[in-house]
Amino acid sequence: ARQSGRARRRAACPGCPAHAAPSRRMDPIEDTLQRLREAFNAGRTRPATFRAAQLRALGRFLQDNKQLLQDALAQDLHKSAFESDISELILCENEVDLALRNLQAWMQDKPAATNLTKLDSAFIRKEPFGLVLIIAPWNYPLNLTLVPLVGALAAGNCVVLKPSEISKATEKVLAEVLPQYLDQSCFAVLLGGPQETEQLLEHKFDYILFTGSPRVGRIVMTAAAKHLTPVTLELGGKNPCYVDDNCDPQTVANRVAWFRYFNAGQTCVAPDYILCSPETQERLLPALQSAITRFYGDDPQSSPDLGRIINQKQFQRLRALLGCGRVAIGGQSDESQRYIAPTVLVDVQETEPVMQEEIFGPILPIVSVRSLDEAIDFINRREKPLALYAFSNSSQVVNQMLDRTSSGNFGGNEGFIYMTLPSLPLGGVGNSGMGRYHGKFSFDTFSHHRTCLLSHAGLEKLKEIRYPPYTAWTQQMISWALASQSCTLL
Ligand SMILES: *[C@@H]1O[C@H](CO)[C@@H](O)[C@H](O)[C@H]1NC(C)=O
Ligand SMILES: *[C@@H]1O[C@H](CO)[C@@H](O)[C@H](O)[C@H]1NC(C)=O
Ligand SMILES: *[C@@H]1O[C@H](CO)[C@@H](O)[C@H](O)[C@H]1NC(C)=O
């Protein structure tokens, strides 16, 4: 109430600049955050009507600027319109629609059981945290920026968006065009690289969602710990893909190749390496070659459907990985275009760099294992991955893989299609992250689940039984009430 009083006084003083602070301020970030906090504290983002208006504006941003966004994605990653549509634009539009359709229901208090004292009402209220920071990566620079944003806005927060400086063209659209659609008293885009982000993280936020590497995830969580700010960390890892002997190699090759080479392999949930027997490897290789040729032609470099590596640093890192094991398919690269051919490596040693780091490029090593048990041991010896895939015509094999391992997400005989279902959350476990989002899970992630009990203002006679001096009789009464879990007298 004090805050809104201040806001009112300010509105009554048209000469006062909107974000003039009471004291002199040097830090432009602090200014922005102060402005958002004031809007939040004044209750601006709480009404459902305001949230819906912001979501509709976000939907308009996507529709009005479709071509601009596709061009930006093509410039950053040579992303084809098809891949932009299905993995970035349509996905974001769907999230906006879903949130708009369900906003009322999601916002509703969730009643909890109360018995005996039916006069009490117990419920869980989903209330906004306040000021949310979303730090997004460059590989799906729209999807991984706007999908969390939908959840944060729907939940009634003020939001600071930090898009990746590496996907420059998309960053520009997000910084220059998106703010024209959203309410600027509650929303800001801040720019910069690692240094600026580090400075940003020194400030206090009420929630942080970060998508990126486990290395930077540690930096974010350390900074958040100083303020006890809760975090969702969407990290990566090496996603195993087990291929059973009992399978049709061409079917498996098609599916694995599409998901591996989609966005030139720069996908956190892509299959990172194949685990299979030497016999299955022999059957898979020609099938993978055939899939790659069918998808991208004899010269994949001239295919409009294959992406490029985001920058020189990533390109050099990936080119070095081509020296691991033996190239069975592909292996070509062209620095001037940051092109790396869809590649399959065999005879790879566990100790080589390609099996030590997340590949994040169009390179697929095959590691030999003799059995399902050996594959499971191999997986369980490593950090928990963000995703795990198992291909087999035997559902028993798929289920064993599911039962005996752990990962953020699991795909049986399919790639990361689960990401298109808003009914399923996306999130890691262990080294691949914590927390989850998508659809209603996003709303819940960005809401504090507040425990509420509203009791009767009267009935004091009934409640007096709990006060000292305690007697044997009142102790018995209370014990009975507690044991039967039927009372909220206490
Ligand atoms: C959204 O981005 C993630 C980034 O890892 C990507 O894997 C996913 O494919 C995208 N969504 C869809 C539906 O493709
Ligand atoms: C399973 O077997 C059927 C029949 O042979 C085949 O058509 C299908 O592609 C196989 N699926 C996989 C994932 O191997
Ligand atoms: C009272 O609450 C407990 C715990 O929630 C529940 O198990 C029990 O069925 C309830 N009793 C009645 C009469 O509703």
UniProtKB/TrEMBL annotation:
It comes from the Eukaryota. One of its GO terms (molecular function) is aldehyde dehydrogenase (NAD+) activity. The keyword Cell wall biogenesis/degradation does not apply. InterPro entries: Ald_DH/histidinol_DH, Ald_DH_C, Ald_DH_CS_CYS, Ald_DH_CS_GLU, Ald_DH_N, Aldehyde_DH_dom, Aldehyde_DH_NAD(P). Residues 12-21 have a biased composition (Low complexity). The keyword Electron transport does not apply. CDD domains: ALDH_F3AB. Pfam families: Aldedh. Residues 1-27 are annotated as: Disordered. Keywords: Lipid metabolism, NAD, Oxidoreductase. GO terms for cellular component: cytoplasm. Residues 29-450 form the Aldehyde dehydrogenase domain. GO terms for biological process: aldehyde metabolic process; lipid metabolic process. The active site is at residues 234, 268. Residues 1-11 have a biased composition (Basic residues). Belongs to the aldehyde dehydrogenase family. This is Aldehyde dehydrogenase. The gene is ALDH3B2.
